[in-house]
């Protein structure tokens, strides 16, 4: 791991994942989980708004329960104040990584139904320059 100290400027966390290629696989797994949870939270926020529930109440309940975590905290500024700066990953990057994840899971022969649904959501966004939090606004408009 000493050899990885120079990488600290490029990554928040560094972990030994295994043989050559395992790090890339782990990155795709991580991004799938993060982007999948982002999609779940975006859809829940859109539904909450349509139901007339305040963003404050939604954030309080999610934050205190199973919806809490790093992804919610990155989406919080957008949900509360329409500020996408907490999560600057674009829809284009999300779609790209989810496509790589789909290819990887296909090669591994593992189930990917949830990944397919998440990928379909991201690829359905017409403006791929939007940041991930801005998906919430798109889903609210689609109603």
Automatic annotation (TrEMBL):
Molecular function GO labels: NAD binding; oxidoreductase activity
Domain of life: Bacteria
SUPFAM superfamilies reported for this sequence: 6-phosphogluconate dehydrogenase C-terminal domain-like (SSF48179)
Keywords attached to this entry: Oxidoreductase
InterPro entries documented for this protein: 6-PGluconate_DH-like_C_sf (IPR008927), 6PGD_dom2 (IPR013328), HIBADH-like_NADP-bd (IPR029154)
Record domain 3-hydroxyisobutyrate dehydrogenase-like NAD-binding: where: 21-126
Family annotation (Gene3D superfamilies): N-(1-d-carboxylethyl)-l-norvaline Dehydrogenase, domain 2 (1.10.1040.10)
Name under which the protein is recorded: 3-hydroxyisobutyrate dehydrogenase-like NAD-binding domain-containing protein
């Amino acid at each position: 791991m000493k050899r990885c100290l120079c990488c600290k400027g490029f990554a928040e966390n560094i972990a030994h994942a295994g043989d050559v290629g395992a790090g890339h696989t782990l990155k795709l797994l991580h991004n799938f989980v993060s982007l999948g949870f982002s999609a779940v939270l975006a859809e829940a926020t859109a539904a909450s708004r349509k139901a007339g529930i305040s963003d404050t109440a939604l954030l309080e309940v999610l934050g205190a329960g199973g919806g809490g975590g790093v992804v919610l905290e990155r989406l919080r500024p957008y949900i509360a104040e329409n500020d996408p700066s907490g999560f600057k990953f674009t829809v284009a990057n999300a779609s790209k990584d989810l496509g790589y994840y789909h290819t990887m899971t296909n090669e591994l022969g593992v189930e990917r139904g949830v990944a397919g649904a998440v990928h379909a959501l991201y690829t359905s966004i017409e403006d791929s320059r939007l940041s991930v939090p801005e998906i919430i606004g798109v889903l609210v408009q689609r109603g």
